[in-house]
Amino acid sequence: MRTSTPARVGQYTALLAYLVFLAFPFLWLVSTAFKPPRELGSLHPTWIPEDPTLANFRQAFDEQPLLHAALNSLLAALAAALIAVLVATPMAYVVARRRTRLAKAVTGWVVVSQAFPFVLLIIPMFLVLKNLRMINSLPGLVLVYVVWALPFALWMLAGYVRAVPRELEEAAAVDGAGRVRTLVSVTAPLLAPGIVATGLFAFITAWNEFFFALVLLKTPEKQTLPVVLTHFIGAEGAADLGPLAAAAFLATLPSLVVFALIQRRITGGMLTGAVKS
Length: 277
Hints:
The chain is built from 13 helices and no strands. By secondary structure, the chain is mostly helical. The radius of gyration is 23 Å and the shape is globular.
């Protein structure tokens, strides 16, 4: 059925309003980052700074160890993404290829686990890390990030595995290849786009995460970038808007770049496997 012109106009209007709603915080953040103190305190704020300045960026780097915090975030995010992909790939293969009750139960548990709030998970995770003597350490934080990213990585990769024709694996089996050899030599190369997309998604999740890092990391030298950004807010809740906006803008750029590269891959991973060939 063809959509009528009024309905189409309404759809595009709603879509435009939604895009504006999503873009407004980032655009206002960019505008604030380049405004001098005089414009930040103005009663009549403007979208475009009248006298743009880079002083907020210099002040942000002078007040807080942003580069060191960014390095901590980078190490934690890269390690978490790599481990999550290495663990999730063989698990996704088993879940996608074995149509057993256990595989169905694992899939159901993956979906249910995504509904768990952070507060429900932080206490048992804190106790486990305390017993392992990994509180206030980046390896402990990486372990938490892996646990948090693993369900979605498993679900996403399972969709890519289902898209790989079984005939290729059967042909490898006829040639004498075992399960592990088939996964490494036949299936894994075909899963490369999905593996990259899943790893980048896990990276974004770990890079932007705040709550776990705030609870588990106490030493300033080990804190990640999202936690360090809170240091621009005073004890009474007064924020140093200029440097805070500048630091937040720099912290947001890696996520935006990575997401722009993988957003189609993420959508494909969600939909792949839903349609039978």
